[in-house]
Amino acid sequence: MLTIGNFDGVHRGHQALLQMLVRKARSLGLPAVVLTFEPHPREYFSPDDAPARLASLREKLLLLAASGVDRVHVCRFDAHMAALSAERFLDEVLIAGLGLRHLIIGDDFRFGARRQGDFALLQGAGARCGFGVEAMPTLEVGTERVSSSAVRAALAAGDLDHAARLLGRAYSVAGRVVHGDGRGRTLGYPTANVQMKHRKAALSGVFAVAVEGLADHPVPAVANVGVRPTVTRSTRASLEVHLLGWRRDCYGAHMRVHFLHKQRDEARFESLDALTAQIARDADTARAWFEQNPIKIEAGNHHG
Known about the structure:
Blueprint: E1 2-4, H1 12-28, E2 33-38, H2 41-45, H3 57-66, E3 71-76, H4 79-83, H5 86-97, E4 102-106, H6 119-129, E5 132-136, E6 140-141, E7 144-145, H7 148-156, H8 160-167, E8 172-178, H9 183-186, E9 192-194, E10 205-212, E11 219-226, E12 238-243, E13 254-264, H10 272-292
Parallel strand pairs: 1-2, 2-3, 4-5
Antiparallel strand pairs: 6-7, 8-9, 8-13, 9-12, 10-11, 10-13, 11-12
Helix pairs in contact: 7-8
């Protein structure tokens, strides 16, 4: 029992498809299998203007495992894969490679060179080769179609509540705490620098966040995602987290940062003094927000 897709972010539409897959697999006594691609095909074809990732491969695999699937095949998306016609993808990868018995896909799924393969082609092949094909209708929240691009748009606009409605949980980023330049410590606001793997950030600015992985409860914090225009000329986004009321070192820890509330956009300051004063205000704003909004992390929202 197979489904195929990029599953970036594993949003509520993906979750509904995976539930359908697992339920059907259990009823037929088959394993529930996901085929996904790395890198994302759009990253392969146009690395410079591919959309920001909602999840690293590691995060995606954790979310897929949490949804109850039995196996995930990660298919390397390279020149060979990009050139495969829809028919050859079907014959070589799905039938010969995975022994396809039953396929469930989203109703907008396209595959093969120039995206020529679609649901009708799969149905025809299924009738000839003896495998079943089902389409999962698009999930809507309100009147909006749930999609990875809708989640990206909500995050880019700073609308974290809307992103959470589409994802079924608060948007989060996980990574290891690495050594930064130590500037936060000298300014009196030590920050944990969370490694962001090669990816554009899906959001930017200053946020009230909850951090998991350091204690047996989420720790309130204020986070900056961006290129730090006051202190660097880098164009690569970084994630810096100042933990509120936390005094211990956390280098090397693997932590998950849940984005709960956007406070402001990233800005450039004329001096380090002006930056320090703003960081103090940001910390106070976050504390005030947490007083009104106690941290609640949904069950199943703290993978890895």
